[in-house]
Amino acid sequence: MRSIRPVQKVIDGFEILPGIGPKSAARLAYYMLNMPQERLERFAEALENLKKDTKFCELCFNVGEEQFCPVCQDANRDKTLVCVVENALDLIAIEKSEGNKGVYHVLGGSINPMAGIGPNDIRIPQLLARLRLGEVKEVVIATNPNLEGEATAMYIVEKIKEMGLSETVKVSRIGRGLATGADIEFADGQTLLRALEGRRVM
Amino acid sequence: MRSIRPVQKVIDGFEILPGIGPKSAARLAYYMLNMPQERLERFAEALENLKKDTKFCELCFNVGEEQFCPVCQDANRDKTLVCVVENALDLIAIEKSEGNKGVYHVLGGSINPMAGIGPNDIRIPQLLARLRLGEVKEVVIATNPNLEGEATAMYIVEKIKEMGLSETVKVSRIGRGLATGADIEFADGQTLLRALEGRRVM
């Protein structure tokens, strides 16, 4: 016995999200039956407008509401220092640590051959194009300290060398104050701050 | 640094749901930024219509699309046997076990003094009114085998005695094939089937 159609549609919506299995999806849907209609409509509206009201920053690919994200728009940020992160949540975690006085480049993932994600499937070409312009003097690679994140860091370093930019651009990797296999977005600010301070030249 | 407004709205929507903390809510919202707009709109529509397209059954308070739910509409079900459950997900779990040939009464919760939920805050008055009509000959109480579920079962039995119906209505409690403290909706069909078969008179 499946749930009736209107409930099943909500279950289906939840079920495709990461970390939500069929049982949790059903629980959430039935829970929502007892929520005020106005709450459901507010949530529905937020979902519908999520992508309409947001833009990827044309420079760093962070999420914002305008052509350039709040960080790139900030005149006080050091535009010669670019911190490379996997996603926008990692950027937020690093912003909270206040360890980065520069700007960002959001890759939108990491190199993962098992999942069929190569260097050109994330925003590495855009990063290299940005470096080619010559304004950036330092790159801090803050991808996750796991297999995919390390591979991504290594690939970027190699490409910068190939492009003959290793003389003018200092490349470093975020310090391993972080436990191996951990997620940047769940690390506390202090750990992230130390990791940023303790970055090492590659 | 909070997320930008359109993203924060989606985070807020997730955060009020049971079992979803602030970090999971943020993860889900950012994940959704990479989902196709059409998927988001389908989900939004499902949420908006969830309550509009569903009705509580006027007899048993199960979730349905019409005045009476599919179980109550089924001519093959034994209308003299009522299985009392806490919520619609418990009903679905019992339906899957095929252990109930009768119909249901969905309480919409359990008596929980700590949370300020008394007998009249769930659908016990409606159950008693239904029994007063005289058609029901057997009541199987399938509330969860935990403190609140047991208290709810005891209360219902007392009320039936008080109303002088214990002569004409046989009341039983679902068999304890279930582990104490467990949730009915997560139990497997076999366990539920045995529990229904092994019910004992109260």
Automatic annotation (TrEMBL), chains A, B:
InterPro entries reported for this sequence: DNA_Rcmb_RecR, Rcmb_RecR, Rcmb_RecR_Znf, TOPRIM_dom, TOPRIM_RecR
Keyword DNA repair listed: yes
Protein name: Recombination protein RecR
Gene: recR
Annotated Toprim domain residues: 80-175
CDD domains noted in UniProt: TOPRIM_recR
NCBIfam families: recR (TIGR00615)
HAMAP family, per database record: RecR
